[in-house]
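Q: My labmate handed me this sequence with no annotations at all. I'd like to see what the chain might look like in three dimensions before we decide whether it's worth expressing. Could you predict it?
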Amino acid sequence: MNNLFNITMNKTAYTKHYFEEFSQSSTISAGETIPAIKELIEPTSVVDIGCGLGAWLSVWQKNGVKIILGVDGDYVDTNQLLISKECFLAADLEEELRLPEKYDLVMSLEVAEHINMESAETFIQSLCNAGNIVLFSAAIPHQEGVQHVNEQYPDYWINLFRKHNFFPYDWLREKIWNNTKINCCYRQNILFFVNDKYKENYPLITKESRKVLPVIHPEHYEYKQRELTAYRNILRTPFRANLYFIKKFAKFLLAKVGLWK
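A: Here is what I predict for the chain of 261 residues:
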């Protein structure tokens, strides 16, 4: 992602369809990942900053967590939520967030890349304000997605967390790496960040510090290779290229009038 330009977030991109598209796979991913998390930490309260429809929180509830809070923008249709409306807080994620209480686990998964670079430090500060351990993942460069305005390798986020005395621990990725039921982006990017003052409270996570490598999951790599091959085939001749773009434009027009989804 080229960050030389000041990109203004287009919040209208976060439509009902956008959230519906990801809620099912997020629920499945959460169902497979949360048991692995519980081997390392047993939270009684969880806040998810950038929660979408609350898919992860709904699974935490099924796993016995009674205190939950989901935070996201006012563009979320609360009638779509998978959690109670009373457990949802609308907030501007690019402004500093200070909650009245701290949570046993703070989550923010595949959200930070949607935050403008100018607000990235503020966003990380909000996560650190909310608790002493953060479960975090963010898209790496060229991962691509809707409104990905700040895709970065882990070191970028590690440096921002370090300003608040939070340090990374890479224990979860190896536990879920080969579980194909879990969305590849989580398996590729997910890390713990722990407040160094309280690291003794999480011995299974902080017993050893590893260097966090900027790894790319083979599934993501293979997907990108297939995509590249497809575009090479499309652009092989002017006729194929023109036909492809005519079809794309026709679909765009049909979608505009509600005849194509």
